Write the structure tokens for this entry.
Amino acid sequence: MRPLYRPRLGRYPRSTGGSTGRRSVFPSKRRSVPMHVLCVDPDVGSLEDTRVELSRRLPGATLYTAPDGERALETLATEPITCVVSDYDLPDGSGIDLLERVREGHVTLPFLLFTGAGSEAVAAEAIAAGVTGYVVDDGTEGRYAKLAERIAEATGGTVADATPAVGDERRAVSEADAPDAVCPRRLTALHEATTGLIAADTEAEVANVAVEAASEIHGLAASTVYLYDADANAIEPVASTGAAENLSGGPPTYGPGDSIVWRVFERGEPEAIGNVPEDPDVFDPETPIRSQLTVPLAGHGALVVGSHEPGTFDDEDVAFGRILADSAVAALDQVSSREDLTRQNERLDRFVGVVSHDVRNPLAVAKGRLDLARAELDREGIEVDHLGDVDYALDRIETLVGDLLRLARDGAAPTDPEAVSLAALVDHCRAAVDTDGATLVAATDRSIRADTGRVRQAFENAVRNAIEHADGDVVVTVGELADGTGFYLEDDGPGIPADDRDRVFDAGYSTTRNGSGFGLRIVEQVVEAHGWTVRVEESTAGGARFEVSGVELVD
């Protein structure tokens, strides 16, 4: 079972005062500034209702109306508008389209979406587009009060009756820390959370960042991240705020089918529960939690935020919760991939150790014994034809083992690249490879930035491959690509059939008896480790041509 982490919410004050910990996010005093609010809605009746209600709630505000986006832009061009309130569905586009057009000339102008077309998808789209606020026109009496509050927050104005449309506890932060606008605060918290999630190295760190961010974004102190334990077939609390731990002894572990959290985890869709004790899947009917937002973390688990008041969460909360969850999932995937890679590298290290010691040592003994046997038979004047085949087989094994070890060791990125002369690499191959009459030509004096040792291995294998596949003498040429993006290595041998060019880099692929089938695979691995790309073409002489691009050339 994973340890339960208890992050300190230093930046996210918990609720204080009274049994419900009620404290408003909205400052008790605001500076009074002139408000000129433009309301955009194609429904004439709804537009008039909005104008009247806002006039009553925003003292001294001047209200303008427009039935569509074009009329709104005309008003914006002639009047000192300080805030735009728009429906989502407009005759000439969407409210998001209007937002984008407004932003072309008014980058910082507050823009609120007030729509009956409320859904999580719309809220997410609005938030992603940079809307200042999102309020659902749900037909309830509190919708205009909430809209007025959002306008006042965005413009610095005052509200006649500054009573939040949602319970005060859902914004459990002190008045001294309260920002001027909830939506910008949430966006800032999301940005900070994303930075923290990217830097996280473990699941626990990801969960830790996520619960703190959830508490900041939703203004609630009770947040928990659950992660799935495959061995236990359960989702377990991995990170939890202090407020969540104080509820009924702390967050429980959930098994299949016994909770709202498991239901959301299994279905993969977020849920905002307005009255938790009445939900058929409630784990503890006596829970003090009345509202709960549960967002799945793909196959990893779930993020849960709770409130003591019913009906706390709306579409905007769900949208923000989903965005935070998506970032957490990406971070968890990254951690998982990193852990998988670490395990893979550990297995690879063990493999290299086994091959280096348990295979090479017996191979050396076998070759030594063969030499002794051959010498003894020579003294006796006995000729055994099969010894040549044994010697060849042992050499083949030694070559294969060497290539396998190079493959196992050369996957990591270069650690110390430096300027390497292409001509010097050609000279190295003349000395290191049995050229068997082949001619090596350097057609350039340019250098590349690379890991010297590993790029030498790549050149050795490419040259050796050209020589092995040539019936007679072969000319191997190294030069700079015409577009200056890299270099080529080509020969005038038999070439590679077009149908085989996609397979030449596969491990084990070879068309000669003496080839290990790993030479070109090593070439590709070195190329990829440097971040380059390689492709196979036909040379001007009809042979094989390997073009390596994405290379940093240096003089």
